[in-house]
Amino acid sequence: LIIIHPRIGCASGGTSSGWERTQTQDGEVYMSKATLQVSPQFPGELVGGSVHELGHGLGIKHSNDLECGNDIIHDTCQSIVYGDPYDPMGASSSIVMGYFNVYHQEKLRWLDESHIRNTRANGLYNIEPIGTPVPGIKGIKVPRQEGLHYYVEYRRAQGRDNHNIVRGAGTQVY
After folding, report:
1. How far apart (Å, rounded) are the C-alpha atoms in residues 2 and 14?
2. Residue 112 CA, distance from chain mean position
3. How do beta strands 65-67 and 27-38 pair?
């Protein structure tokens, strides 16, 4: 259930309760409830914000950016909340309308082991773009340490990713 109301003040925003027990006239049901504030001047917020809050309702968290400056990934990198500009869980504006990243699609069970290659081996791997209906590997999952992984995905400027993607691969760290 998404409850939408006009934005009050400057900031748009939303909240999601996740799954909870709710009493209805037909009995008890489990549902996710979200509220969303949108501005009439920016109707794209409605779609982007709805996708973002639905993601929370499905149990996925924000997509952040890991900022390491000019260095490789290290212990002092900063996690920038909402920093992933390609994933709806990285922001909820009308600009970020892309597909959920490979990590989130795996968590949602939209992708399984037939779509994600788990490997530690060096090699050349073919990755199909996210959001395309063709079968094949959509991401590579490389173990890092203690349950953490690197995810490599490929996005192409098409479909929901048409707005801000320059053809190429991206890496997520989870």
Report:
1. 10
2. 16
3. unpaired
Which residues are paired to 64 by β-bridges? none
Angle at 105 between CA 100 and CA 109, to 5 degrees: 150
Rounded CA separation 129/71 (Å): 28
For 75, what's the count of Cα atoms within 13 Å in the CB-facing half-sphere? 1
Q: Please answer whether residues 29 and 58 qualify as being in contact, where contact means their C-beta atoms are separated by less than 8 angstroms.
A: no
End-to-end CA distance of the chain: 29
Q: Backbone dihedral region of 30: left (phi > 0), alpha (psi from -120 to 50 degrees) or beta?
A: beta
Q: Is 42 exposed, middle or buried (0-12, 13-18, 19+ CB in 10 A)?
A: middle
How long, in residues, is the chain?
174
Tens place of pLDDT for every residue, the chain, 174 residues? 777 767 666 555 677 766 778 888 999 987 777 777 777 666 667 777 778 888 888 888 888 888 888 887 777 888 888 888 788 888 755 556 788 899 999 999 999 889 999 999 999 999 998 888 888 999 999 998 787 888 888 888 777 777 666 655 566 665
